[in-house]
Structure formats: C-alpha cells, structure tokens
Amino acid sequence: MARDDLFVSSQLPQQRTFDGVPFPAVLSPNPAAPIHTITQFEDAIQAEKASLESLIKSSGAVLFRGFPVHTAADFNQTVEAFGYEELPYVGGAAPRSNVVGRVFTANESPPDQKIPFHHEMAQVAEFPSKLFFFCEQEPKSGGETPIVLSHHIYNKMKEKYPDFVEKLEEHGLIYIRVLGEGDDPSSPIGRGWHSTFMTKDKAVAEERAARLGMKIEWTPEGARTIMGPIPAVKFDKSRNRKIWFNRMVAAYTGWSDSRNDPTKAVKFGDGSLLPADVVNDCLNILEEECVAIPWKQGDVLLIDNWAVLHSRRSFEPPRRVLASLCK
Predict the structure, then answer these.
(1) Could you say which of 37, 71, 146, 169 would form a disulfide bridge with 290 (CB–CB 3.0 to 4.6 Å)?
(2) Cα(322)–Cα(233) distance, rounded to whole angstroms?
C-alpha cells in the first residue's frame, strides 16, 4: 500500500472485499500533506512507484480520487509519471480519437448503449497490461465503468459450468468482425479498417493484421476479420491463477450493428456455436460480482488488464472519460 504522507487509503460504499483485499483500492491525498499541482502529483507517483505497483498487484485496480487532474494534458502527465510504455491501439474494435499525447477518448459509442464486460483487446495477440481511465466530465447520471476480478469469474464459471469451461480451455475462441472502411460512431464496434490498422493500404493492413495473428477477407463494403482460435482462459503467472481473459460476453451480446450479428461474432475454436444460455448467465455473473463506482470529475482509474474486466453503463450526457493503454 502507498504509505508515508503522500497518499491515504479511502473507503467508498461500492467497494467490495475479496480474500481480505479491498476492490478497488482507493487512494486520496493526505490532508496533512496536500497535493496542489499536477507536478506534485507526478512527484508523489514517482516517489511511491514501488508501493503503488504492489497495490495494483494485490488489488487489481486503483482509483485515485481528489488529486489535481483537471485536463487531458494533466492526465497525460499522470500516465507518463508511472513510466509504462505506450501501446498503440492497433486491432481494437472501439472508435476512439486521439486527444493529446498518449491520451484517447474512451469508446465513443452512443450514451444509450452499454458496453459489455471485457479484457481490453483480448481478441488480439498484443494487448495492454495496464489501462488508465480519467473522468474529465462526470455524467448527469449513469455512465459508470464497472470492474470485476477475472480470476473470480473463472472460478464461478468453472464451478457452475465445468464442461463448458473445459471445452473453452481446450479449444479457445474465434472472433469474427465485419468492418467498414471508415469509423461508424453509432456503433460500439464501429472502428473501420482504416483506423483499426492505421493505414488505407490493404497490403499494409494485411501485414499488420498478420502480426496480430488475424486474417482479413476483403468485401465490397470493407473487410471481415477473423481472429483465432486464441485462448479464452489465460494463466496469470505473477499471481499464480487462471483468469477469464476473453471478450466472449462482449462479442456475443454487444458486437451488434448494421454489419455484425453478435451471435455469429464469437465461436468455440473448433467452429461450434456457443450455448446462448451459458453466455447470458455469464453476463449475469459478471453483473452480480462487479463493482460500479460513480465517476467524479478528476478521477483516475488504473486497471491491471491481467486481473480485471471492465464495461460501461449507459448514461445521461454530458460525460467525457479519456483512456490510455500501456504495454
């Protein structure tokens, strides 16, 4: 835990405790040693880097509340203070816009749409190990970013659906997505192939897709991407446990737009269809076990992508949450 006089642990009513550890951890400034500027916050992060790393490992997510992070530029400096290498957003499905430095908008899909639980970029071979979110403008209502511990979901699913999980571990998953050329901001998976692969050259797109282990089939409207089979359950060596590392529920219940049928967006690695009742019950388990803390302006949420799935609830605008992905 962050110690000395730089950060203090706080409690929020939405927090839960797993194996004696609060989830998420919540840190605030120490009133006896206030942090007034973004530079002071950067210095505090760097001074407490080792203890913060220990905290993120034990808890899986850390919410920083009450610190002087007011703008996208402040958030960029905050992310930089941790010293993690940036991960380019190549292969992801969500429409995003670069704001400043290594800061992007979070998923820009319409406010009435929910974004189901997922590990960030779990459908591609190269995914971030850490995610940062920053609330620049809190919503009038709703708009939480619920989080849930991945190993806890694996254990729940293994206990309730052992045969399903055994098949999932044996065969993995295949993800299929149909993309237009340009971005479609009306869709939660509306990123076109130009921005997905950061090029308008089909040969370059194919090369970048292959690097991710992805195949592209070109269509008159755009492209069809096929990813997999890839593991749906991974082993987190740093914590010595299995994790529910996939986008199964997100794809099956949320990859829906004019181009995509979500029930065909994800399959077992052997090509067989997923049982709808099990997938929908997995969604119920995720909702039952999650923590959803309402955003406050200035909040910074650090998530270990190896430990935690996240989602987004629908909201009443305005809401502006920014993101940054790290290797």
Answers:
(1) 146
(2) 28
With tokens 């755009």, the residue in question is 222
Residue range 184-228, pLDDT digits in tens: 988 989 999 999 999 999 999 999 999 989 999 999 999 999 999
The torsion angle over the Cα atoms of residues 86, 91, 93 and 97, rounded to 10 degrees, is 40
195-216 CB burial, b ≥16 within 10 A, e <16: bbbebeeeeebbebbeebbbeb
92 closest CA partner among 195, 223, 230, 205: 195
How many helices and strands, by DSSP H and E, does the chain display? 9, 21
Nearest to 59 by CA among 323, 264, 307: 307
Would you say 103 and 289 are in contact if contact means Cβ atoms under 8 Å apart? no
Q: What is the pTM of this model?
A: 0.93
